[in-house]
Each structure stands twice: as C-alpha cells, then as structure tokens.
Amino acid sequence: MTVPAALYLQDAHLIREGMEIAQYAERKGFDAVWQADSRLVRDCMIPMAAFAAVTDTIKIGSGVVDCWSRNPARLAAMFSTLDDLAPGRTILGIGAWWDPLAAKVGIKRDKPLRVMREIVTVVRALLNNERVSFDGEYVHLDDVELDYVYQERRPKDVPIYIGATGLKMMELTGEIADGVVLNYLVSPDYNAQAMEALGNGAAKANRSVDDLDRPQLVVCSVHEDRKTALDMARLMVTQYLGQQPHIMKASGVPQSLLDKVGEVLTWPATHEQVVAASKLVPDEIVQMLTASGTPDEARKRAAEYMKNGATCPILYPLGDVYAMIDAFSGPEWQAANSR
User: Fold this and answer.
1) For position 180, which CATH number holds?
2) Average pLDDT over residues 304-321
3) Which residues pair with 134 in a beta bridge?
4) Above pLDDT 70, what percent of the chain?
5) What pLDDT is attached to residue 61?
6) Contact at 8 Å (CB) between 297 and 286?
C-alpha cells in the first residue's frame, strides 16, 4: 500500500511560484496541496483556485478557513465554485481560529463547539443541493439554497474536515466531519489522545475512527546539514511557543519554557525577538515538535505521526520546498513507513 504525502503552503512563496510548486508536487505523486488561511496574511481562496487551475489530479484543501468570519451560505458558495473548477478535488478544511488574533479583529469565540456544529451542518446541506432553513444560536438561514442560474444543479463532492486541537473539538470532529486536519507542532504522542477523542465522537455517529481521513500538518525542515535544518525549524517553533501556547501545551512542552519564551516575545513578535527567544529552545524540543534534520531523519519523524494515527503528512516546508518534495516522493518515504 502506497503511503501518501501532501504539501502545505502559507505565504512564503509568491502565488505564481506556489502554482509551479503545486504542479511539481502533482508530478511527484503528492496527494494534496493545502493552502493556509489562519493568519491575516493570505486569503486561501485565490491561491487554491490558482492551484486548481494548473493541476489535474491533486486535491486542493483549505488549511483552514475559520468558522467565524465567513457567512456559512457564502462559504458553501465559495467551495461550490471551487468544485466547479476542480470537480471532486476540493476539500473544505475549517477551524475555530484562535486568540488573541480573533479578539483583535472583534470576534468573540463564544461556544466554538456549538458554532462549528451548526456551520458544518448547514454548509454540508447546501453543498448537497438542499434548501435549508435553520434557526440556531449562531446560524440563521431562511429557505436558502445555492441558487444556480446557468450552472448544472448537482450535489457538490466537497468533504468537510475540521482542524481540531482541543480534545472536545476532536470529539465533535469524530461525530460530524468527513475528516480531521490534525495540527502541527505537536508530538506524535499527542496523537494517542486525539485518536481516542475522535473514536469517542465517531461512536456517537455509529462509526469508527477508521471512517475518517486523518491528515496531519507536520513542520518539515530538510537539509543535508542537520544543524541548518534544526535552526530553520527552531525559529518557527519559538514563535509558536510564544504566540500559540494552547498548541504547545497539547504537545507536552514544559510550562517553564513557555514562560521564558513569553517573557521575550510580544504580540506581534518582531523577527529580532524570535531570534533572541530561539536561543532558549533546545534541539530536543525542535525535534519533538517537527520533522527536521537530514532527509532520512525527517522521513523517520514524519513516519512516527503515521504510526500514531495520521493517514497522511501535510508537510509544511521550511527551506527548499523542492528538496522536501523530493525527499517524500521516492521509495525512501515508503520504506520509512514499513519499518
């Protein structure tokens, strides 16, 4: 059985460069390319459409849109449109965002589990070509449908994956979603808790965790020189230690390290602050949270996430993205998952 790999793009490349990278990943047999939408840097929809337009088989996923800032009817229309461009290749990845970013733009993340359930319910129904009336705590639709005028009226094959980190959201994902986007900068050991929560939720829907796709974001820094690879990853790990401690706590990072890094970083952190704080982060923390090092070390580390429940690594490249794609597209990657 061939073990897939996928690619994660944020804003490190120009969109036209991303289009070429997506084509290269497709030629190399990658399963999917996911575009970030988490920060106020790059909206995912435009690059997703660009990637879809220049590829033929690779899946295109959002990693992830938030559940607060887009009206669910418009969200359904957006992904219906993407499916028109790339039929059967579009994945709607959606998450509950995070603070302080949400609070800074005026969004109160009240009842995220309730909101996620309501949005997934109505977006799925709309994509399934249903007329929807819904009066929830957050979502209110009055006899709404995707009202095609010229296009063929058909259900859209757009699976919905929830980007979950907390175990309550993980359990909800197991109950209502088609898949989960497991987070990055967590250790493989974290996955055991995630699989248990997913299984508990899946049981509520009379299914098992194996009925869900479970790709996982994995920060990947590949270089023939091990120190260079770890130093590239260390900067990103440092930024997340200071600015998204909820992820770090889920990974088992010591609170003492979180406190020390938090004393150095402000919001938003400057590059100089990240560099200064990175000196506090030891190699073992970098290796615990990422797949970094030589190509063989990176493959072995990514394979650990697979052994702990992930179905496909969504590789977030630091450094040479083409070298990373090459490292995970040959027989060495398959061998790493058979050991």
Assistant:
1) 3.20.20.30
2) 95
3) 141
4) 98
5) 98
6) no
Beta partners for residue 213, in sequence order: 179
Q: Are strands 132-135 and 140-144 parallel, antiparallel or unpaired?
A: antiparallel
By the 10 Å C-beta count (0-12 exposed, 13-18 middle, 19+ buried), 327 is classed as buried
Q: Are residues 162 and 47 in the same domain?
A: yes
HSE-CB for 273 with a 13 A CA cutoff: 16
Q: Please enumerate in sequence order all residues whose Cβ is within 8 A of that of 7, keeping only pairs 6 or more positions apart, or say none.
A: 21, 22, 25, 30, 32, 33, 34, 314, 315, 317, 321, 325
Q: How far is CA 262 from CA 11, 97, 242, 267, in A?
A: 25, 20, 5, 10
Percent of the chain exceeding pLDDT 90 equals: 78
* H or E stretch covering 258: helix 255-264
Q: Are 134 and 162 in contact (CB under 8 A)?
A: no
Residue 266 binned pLDDT confidence (cut-offs 50, 70, 90): confident
Q: Kindly state whether residues 69 and 184 are assigned to the same domain.
A: yes
Is 244 within the bounds of a domain?
Answer: yes
Maximum Cα–Cα distance across the chain: 60
Are 260 and 329 in a shared domain? no
1 is a domain residue: no
User: Do 141 and 254 sit in the same domain of this protein?
Assistant: no
Same domain flag for 146 and 248: no
Distance from C-alpha of 162 to C-alpha of 160, rounded to nearest angstrom = 7
Strand intervals (E) in 285-329:
291-293, 312-318
Residue 231: domain span:
225-291
